[in-house]
Amino acid sequence: MNGSGKLKGKKALIVAVANERSIAWGIAQALHREGCELAFTYLGEALERRVRPLAESVGAKVIAPCDVRDESQVEALFHAVGDAYGSLDFLVHSIAYAERSDLEGSFVATSKNGFLTALEVSAYSLVSLTRKALPLMEKAGGGSIVTLSYYGAEKVVPNYNVMGVAKAALECCVRYLAWELGPKNIRVNAISAGPVRTLAAAGIRGFKTMMQTVQERAPLKRNVTLDEISDTGLFLLSPSGGGITGETLYVDSGYNILGM
Ligand code: 0WE
To answer: What's this model's pTM, rounded to 2 decimal places?
Structure first.
C-alpha cells in the first residue's frame, strides 16, 4: 500500500504487463499503493517469466495467460478472476500489436491481414475484454476502464502507419463504450501518452529522435515519465476521475497542442 489506501478492497485486472518498464506495470503499482487487489495476464511463456515475479510482489491472486485473439483463454481468465475476487472494479487495457513490417515504410502497402491483425489486437480487444468484464463490474455496482493510446491516432506520425488507424478505432471504441456503459456506472477512458521507452518501443526505427523532438519542442521541454502516466491512470480509474468518461486525456508534456 503506502498511499492513502483510498482504493482498499477494490479489484483490478491488468492486461498486459510485459516487464517492469510496461505502462501497465506502472499503473498496477499505483493501484497497489492505494490498496487495490490485482489480477494480471501475460502473453506466452517468455513473458510469463517476467510477469510472474512482478505480480507476486504485489500479492496477485490471479496470474493467467491471455492471448486476446484466443476466445478460450479470455473465457478462462474471467472465470479465474470471478473465482478469486467475485467482482471487478477496474480494467487496465494496455495492449497493442501490429506486424513489425507494418510499422515502417509504406502505409499504402499495408496488407489486409496486417490491417486486421492490428485492429483486432489493439482495438477490438478493448470491446471483447470489456464485454467479459461487464458481469463482474455489475456485481461491483460499476467500474472504470482505462486504455492506452497515442497521438498517431489523430495526426500522422511517420511509420506509425496502421497502428495510427488502430488507435483511432480504439479511441472511438472508448466513446461508444462510454455511452453505452455510462448508465451502468462504468466509465471508459483513454490516456494518450507521449513516447516512453518500453518493450513496445524497442527496436522502433527513429524512436530516439522522436523522444529528442518532444524534449526540444513540447511546452514542458522534456519527455513524460512512466510515473506521470501511471498517476493519470490512477486518477482516471479512481473516484477522483468520477466525472470523466469517453475521454482521451493527453499525458504528453503538451506536445499535442502544437500547430507547427
Ligand atoms: O503504440 C506504440 C507501439 C505499439 C507496437 C509496438 C510493436 C513493436 C514490436 C505495436 N506493434 C508492435 N509490433 C512489434 O513487432 N507506440 C506508441 C510506440 C511507438 O511505436 C512507433 C512509434 C511509437 C511512438 C512506431 C512507429 C513510429 C512511432
So the answer is: 0.98
200 alpha carbon to ligand 1 midpoint, in Å? Answer: 5
Q: Domain spans of the chain? A: 11-252
pLDDT in tens, 87-121: 999 999 999 999 999 999 999 999 999 999 999 99
In the set 42, 85, 150, 250, the catalytic residue is 150
97 has catalytic annotation = no
Residue 150 is among the residues annotated as catalytic for this protein:
yes
Q: Give residue 12's identity as a one-letter amino acid code.
A: A
Q: Pick 11-252's CATH classification: 3.80.30.20, 3.40.50.460, 3.40.50.150, 3.40.50.720.
A: 3.40.50.720
